[in-house]
Amino acid sequence: MTVLKDSRQGYRREDFSVAQLLCVSKGRSGFTLIEIAVVLVIIGMVLVLVLPRLPSSEQENLKVSARTLASTLRYMQDRAATGRTTYYLRMEPGTDTVKVLEAAADGGEKEPLDTMLQKRPVKEGIVVADVTIPRLGKVSNGTIRLDVGNGGLRDFVVIHLRSPEDKFWTVMAFPSSGKVKVFDGYQEEAL
Prior knowledge:
- This protein is an alpha+beta fold.
- Helices cover about 30% and strands about 30% of the residues.
- Strand 6 and strand 7 form a beta hairpin.
- The longest helix is centred in the middle third of the chain and has 26 residues, at about 60-85.
């Protein structure tokens, strides 16, 4: 960059680099406030993009699974009432197998057409410890199918989810009202 400077004999031409023009005082080293702010903004943007992709703890997976299962049960009840369709929640206590199915025209079961119900409601590694239904008692193994029809769930249901660290969360679904509650820990009775 060329700059013309006034001297006693007239203007003279001096060449400066951009770096020399930006440096206000020679001899001082360090960063300006603007440079530090720009770096902090860049670091913040990287953190916003990277942190959600980091693996989460088992306790967090358990909490998310309990809340997702509760939301799925509520959504199934709403869809069954508005769409006049029956849905099934198939669980295998002692495993992490939880699946939503839709009643087929021939009386069988099929994958639900609703994409929200096709998602896995429980994260991998989170186990359905047991399911309690008053007419069946506590079921710790085998297969359980909860029917969700136009009137919602038929029975009061308590589902206990367990993490690999043996921590528990409880999902309680109430018949007819459509309420589904989530509790930290192993709860036997409705609070």
